[in-house]
Amino acid sequence: MSHPGHPVRPATPERDPGLQPERTRLAWRRTTLSCTVAAVLAGKQALHGGAGPLALVGAGLSVGLWLAFVVLANRRIHALAHARPAPMRKGTALGAAGITVGLAVFAVAVVR
Amino acid sequence: MRGQARTQASGWGLGHALTGRGQGAGRVRGVNGFVEALRLWFAPARVREEGETPDYRFSLANERTFLAWIRTALALVGGGFAVDQFLPDLSRGWRIALALALLVVGALCALRAVNHWVRCELAMRRGEDLPVSRFPALLALAVGLVALAMALVVLFGWAEG
């Protein structure tokens, strides 16, 4: 508690009694899982009509969106591994929402 | 506009400004509030200028709420994919209409998640009431309509088309 402005120390010496950082970390994990399901459905959709060049580009796009989310989530989870984590940055929120919208736009593009 | 928001901070609150409540100037304030919120989306540093940093636990709770909405959005988008892929017997029109409805609602849900997160974070920094929202009710209605449409499709066998 002595350095509230310096989130550089690991969570082990002192921890939140309500386990707030852990709960938030698990929320990111759950959301990553949801994103995985959506991305798998997107990939399946793209490859439905065979593995033509366009289908492969579509599948690659869904894999790319999923990877972007995993990287985003892991960076935030890493930042949460402190006793007093800093608030989420706006870019992280916009990124997560952007990937979700991206999957929706992708779905509209390949809807049959 | 920002100065105006500041001077109102004690009495009105951004929540009221954004939901356009109040008489007379309420609509103007609502539009201004929306533009203000939109600007704040893309100017991360500006949130830090407002008010005081809240307890980190409040910020984390706000973040988890945001993530729950993102999961809801992802589930809706996944549902859109699922309708398109796993209902091959459905007529093309119905299938595309249902899939598009779910996808559009999912995208709206994701965008609204960011907006609500920003507004809550700002309200906490300024020590105001948290913003109220009609969105959950609208989302419930939309999901109910999609469910009703699915039930009708199944019931009356509009599958062949």
From TrEMBL, chain A:
Its main location: membrane. It is a multi-pass membrane protein. Residues 12-21 have a biased composition (Basic and acidic residues). The chain crosses the membrane at residues 54-73, 93-111. It is found in: Endomembrane system. Pfam families: DUF202. The keyword Ribonucleoprotein does not apply. Residues 1-21 are annotated as: Disordered. Keywords: Membrane, Transmembrane, Transmembrane helix. Residues 16-82 form the DUF202 domain. This is DUF202 domain-containing protein. It comes from Streptomyces solicavernae.
